[in-house]
Write a structure and sequence with these properties.
The protein is mainly alpha-helical and 135 residues long. It has a single domain, classed as 2-Layer Sandwich (Nucleotidyltransferase, domain 5), CATH 3.30.420. The chain has five helices and two strands. Helix 2 links the parallel strand 1 and strand 2. Helix 1 runs parallel beside helix 2.
């Protein structure tokens, strides 16, 4: 699920800044690890991990099956933006509208729930106080 501000640029510095800002809105349990693909904009992963405390993992090269959600989401996004599209042509509001549409599109793999619904369920589950056992 896309969650957070637009990058406001391209490259490792812009990626780290946007991702760090997004992570601060999540409960601690949901920001322990992150798996990235191998793009140049992710070259600042060590600094990102140091600054946020989030462990960063990478999929093996040429192994899209290791990141199926990313591959599926890329396919959905290609319906809006063909590969190689310069996203700077689009306003932040237009990009947010696409993110909203993608995040509210039911997915078979999620039992026909939307990514937004599943994400909200995860937020609720980690924010509920634990119940003590007496047995």
């Amino acid at each position: 699920m896309k969650n957070g501000p637009s990058l406001g640029g391209y490259g490792a510095i812009a990626m780290n800044a946007a991702l760090s800002a997004s992570l601060t809105t999540l409960p601690e349990q949901l920001r322990k690890t992150l798996t990235w693909d191998r793009g140049k904009e992710l070259s600042g992963h060590a600094q990102f991990a140091f600054e946020t405390g989030t462990k960063v993992y990478f999929a093996d090269p040429h192994s899209p099956w290791q990141r199926p959600t990313n591959e599926n989401t890329n396919g959905v996004l290609r319906q809006y933006f063909p590969k190689g599209t310069d996203l700077s042509r689009w306003s932040a509001d237009e990009l947010e509208a696409v993110a909203l549409a993608v995040n509210n599109r039911p997915r078979k793999v999620l039992g026909w729930k939307t990514p937004a619904e599943v994400f909200e369920e995860q937020l609720q589950s980690v924010q509920q106080p634990g119940v003590a056992s007496t047995g």
